[in-house]
Design a protein that fits this description.
globular; 799 residues; alpha/beta; Maltooligosyl trehalose synthase, domain 2; TIM Barrel
Length: 799
């Protein structure tokens, strides 16, 4: 990174409406804010109209939609002139199947030439499924129906090399292989290396691995060195030219060999700073063998949320049980909800992946001389095993020494499945044996070990994040990516301190975060919900005011309870934002309607319920009043979460706009434009006022959050050693109302102290003179450090 020391990052979502040039214009503001590095969403050429960049179609070009390489170089030059570096997001797991398909050159080559195509090695395709053809379930009906309706036609495509005959289906365009033209559409289609069919037939037709359940994102075999080199050449070159300083790796769990991939990336970048989008569950830790500085920070988010969770769990549980009783006798416990959700997504959303695993099980069993296992037993056993997975990957590498902890996790998974289904003991034993054989001589056996792990991630992501977290709505502030809704039952800072000690020792340059483009709701929505949930009386009264609109529109209690919390967390919010969110939420829950089979009647009732809530003037007044009445608690939660994230071990990332209050919901709501002119003006005004002007009687939360963020970021840049790999993290004794710790390096010390609950806040401040970087107040032992703000960032001065 040259002399650009990594202290913090600022995430920017790039697209045609916010390009490299737009990012360049805000560099002076970001430098004033105190960040050390811009953190860009994917920069390679994505599909037309992409709003996120994860749908790459061409690895050889910096996105023309963003301004191309010249604009990126100009952005980097401006950033460097202001002392900032640049890191970017990398998408190694998949590419886009665009419309039209010829925009993806490698895919077009495979569609034209089949498994003999020069680019065939790029993609993870099961060529045996359809006898050497690539399944393309993109049609709205069966192939014969589409042809009879005249929707699939022969056409001509004009390209730089001339014209060629193609098959066209609306915006889809497919090549016609040499020597296969002539005859009817049906006859030409039958001669191709691909097989077109209805999207509803994907269980038997889809032959490529996907990103989760997204058919249009085809998996890339980046484990092939040739594919790795070709797909990373531009990024590696930009790093060598010092345009890029580091990388964030998207979805490493989808890769055949994440450890091998990261080692190769480290080798070609001379050990560049790399963090991985790795969701860690419970006590799981990032494998130390992975060549990565750490994760992208969801583990930090989780422990911070747990530290700030309210102590009203039993009362909130009673309210949730009452809401759930409208559907069933009682709301199901979290573990049962997760298990049911994972079973559902395995059977419905991930059917192609499941069937591919099943075929591999049978082949591996035959190769191992076990014989032909009964599908009647293996099928439910495999489903039971997948439903029980608790982590995104098992970390078993064919051909490498066995990781004892990974093998123990697999054994526990099998034991739990056998306890739940003793009738499946024999096929589960078979699966245990096959999935443990990392030294298998069977190609199918080795592939099974890898593919099982690749499917674990989608089961967890779709079953937990994208289903359970829309069903189990006890306190949705805890329903976050990598989060733990059960934290409500055991709140407190213990997990935070344990995590921080481990992070400082093993991943001091890993990322920390509170909001991302993937979070279900922004940090400030969550903070408000945690604050109001601490006042059960106010929470209950507001819920009752919302709940009365549910029965007339026949909306179930759990859904109404989710939307009640959404109203409260994002208030004020209008129909243009809340109605799309409500529709997405109920489809993700997959109980009354789904993305695949929407139920218009139910969705209409939900929309009517939302409209009734928004049209209720009395409810609007109560929402506003509740937020105002809990203003001090909301302020404490908001600032505490931010200051903790900015000062615990790791490299803090600020998601665009979240340096000030941002009441955003799940995407696309969290990708709305940020008013940087307003933020720049606000920061300038705060600068003019200075730290000594804060008064506990009049604190604007937008001002306070921006100021806390700016002061903490600047302190990190000016005192990098105190927050760096060689620093220490020590818990400060305090009352239950306070979370506090000391970061130290040599004789330099910084104390972070946040007040998280009402009551008498006591803090055992070390005997010294301390200056609060936020307010300029000077404190000594025994002083009330929360006299002005509910958070304090204290720099020791008597050294």
């Amino acid at each position: 990174m040259g002399d650009r020391q990594l202290a913090s990052t600022y995430r920017l979502q790039l697209h045609a409406g916010f390009t490299f040039a737009d990012a360049q214009r805000i560099v002076p503001y970001l430098a004033d804010l105190g960040v050390s590095h811009l953190y860009l969403s994917p920069i390679l050429q994505a599909a037309p109209g992409s709003m996120h960049g994860y749908d790459v179609v061409d690895h050889t070009r910096v996105s023309e939609d963003l301004g191309g390489e010249p604009a990126l170089l100009s952005l980097a030059e401006t950033a460097h002139a202001h002392g900032l570096g640049v890191v970017c997001d990398v998408v190694p797991n998949h590419m886009c199947i665009p419309e039209p398909e010829h925009l993806n050159r490698q895919l077009w080559d495979v569609l034209r030439h089949g498994r003999q195509a020069p680019s065939a090695s790029w993609f993870d395709i099961d060529w045996d499924l359809l006898d050497g053809r690539l399944g393309m379930p993109v049609l709205g009906a069966g192939l014969d129906q589409v042809i009879d309706a005249g929707e699939l036609v022969l056409d001509t495509l004009e390209t730089a090399g001339g014209s060629e005959t193609v098959l066209r289906y609306h915006d889809h365009v497919f090549p016609v292989a040499d020597g296969t033209a002539g005859g009817s559409v049906a006859e030409v289609s039958a001669r191709q290396h691909y097989l077109l069919g209805s999207w509803r037939d994907k269980r038997s037709l889809l032959s490529h691995r996907r990103f989760f359940d997204v058919d249009t994102l085809i998996a890339v075999r980046v484990e092939d060195p040739t594919v790795f080199d070709a797909s990373h050449a531009v990024l590696v070159d930009l790093h060598r030219r010092e345009v890029l300083d580091g990388f964030r790796i998207d979805h490493p769990d989808g890769l055949a060999d994440p450890e091998g991939y990261l080692a190769r990336l480290a080798a070609v970048t001379d050990g560049a700073w790399v963090v991985v989008e790795k969701i860690l569950e419970g006590a799981e830790r990032l494998p130390q063998r992975w060549a990565a500085a750490g994760t992208t920070g969801y583990d930090a988010l989780n422990v911070i949320q747990t530290a700030l969770a309210p102590r009203t769990g039993s009362q909130l549980e009673a309210l949730w049980q009452a809401a759930g009783a409208e559907v069933d006798a009682a709301a199901a416990p979290l573990a049962a909800v997760e298990l049911a959700a994972k079973r559902q997504v395995t059977a419905e959303l991930l059917a192609p992946e499941f069937e591919r695993l099943l075929r591999l099980v049978h082949q591996a069993a035959r190769d191992g001389g076990i014989g032909s296992a009964s599908d009647d037993g293996v099928r439910p056993a495999l489903a039971e095993l997948l439903a029980g997975v608790e982590v995104y990957r098992a970390y078993l590498r064919p051909g490498y020494p066995v990781d004892p902890s990974a093998m123990a996790r697999l054994s526990r998974l099998v034991d739990e499945a056998q306890a739940a289904r003793p009738d499946l003991a024999e096929p589960l034993d078979l699966l245990h044996r096959l999935l443990s054989e990392v030294d298998s001589t069977s190609e199918a056996g080795r592939e099974l070990v890898i593919r099982f792990q690749q499917v674990c991630g989608p089961v967890m992501a779709k079953g937990v994040e994208d289903t359970t977290f829309y069903r189990y709505n006890r306190l949705v502030a805890l329903n976050e990516v990598g989060g733990d809704p059960a934290a409500l039952d055991s709140p407190g800072p213990e997990r935070l301190h344990e995590w921080a000690a481990y992070q400082q020792e093993h991943a001091p340059l890993g990322m920390t975060t509170l909001s991302t483009h993937d979070t279900k709701r922004s940090e400030d929505v969550r903070a408000r919900l945690l604050a109001v949930a601490g006042d059960v009386e106010a929470w209950t009264a507001l819920w009752e005011a919302v709940h009365k609109h549910a029965a007339p529109h026949r909306v179930d209690g759990p859904t109404a309870y989710l939307l009640f919390q959404t109203l409260l967390g994002a208030w004020p919010i209008d129909a243009d934002r809340l109605q799309p969110y409500a529709e997405k939420a109920v489809r993700e829950a997959k109980q009354h309607t789904t993305w695949q089979d929407p139920k218009p009647d139910y969705e209409h009732r939900v929309h009517a319920f939302v409209a009734a809530c928004l049209d209720d003037g009395h409810l609007a007044t109560r929402l506003t009043a509740t937020v105002e009445q809990r203003e001090a608690a909301v302020r404490a939660q908001t600032l505490a979460a931010k200051l903790l994230q900015l000062t615990v071990p790791g490299v803090p990332d600020i998601y665009q706009g979240c340096e000030s209050v941002a009441l955003s919901l799940v995407d696309p709501d969290n990708r709305r434009p940020v008013d940087y002119d307003a933020l720049r003006a606000r920061l300038h005004r705060l600068d003019q006022r200075g730290p000594g002007a804060w008064s506990s009687r009049a604190i604007d939360l937008d001002d306070a959050k921006l100021w806390v963020t700016r002061q903490a970021l600047r302190l990190r840049r000016h005192q990098p050693e105190v927050f760096g790999p060689e620093s220490t993290y020590t818990v400060l004794p305090s009352s239950d109302e306070v979370v506090a710790f000391v970061r130290s390096h040599d004789d330099r010390q910084v104390v972070t102290a946040v007040r998280v609950h009402d009551g008498e806040a006591k803090l055992a401040l070390p005997d010294a003179t301390w200056r609060d970087v936020l307010t300029d107040a000077v404190h000594t032992q025994g002083a009330d450090v929360f006299a002005t703000l509910p958070v304090a960032l204290l720099l020791r001065e008597d050294r």
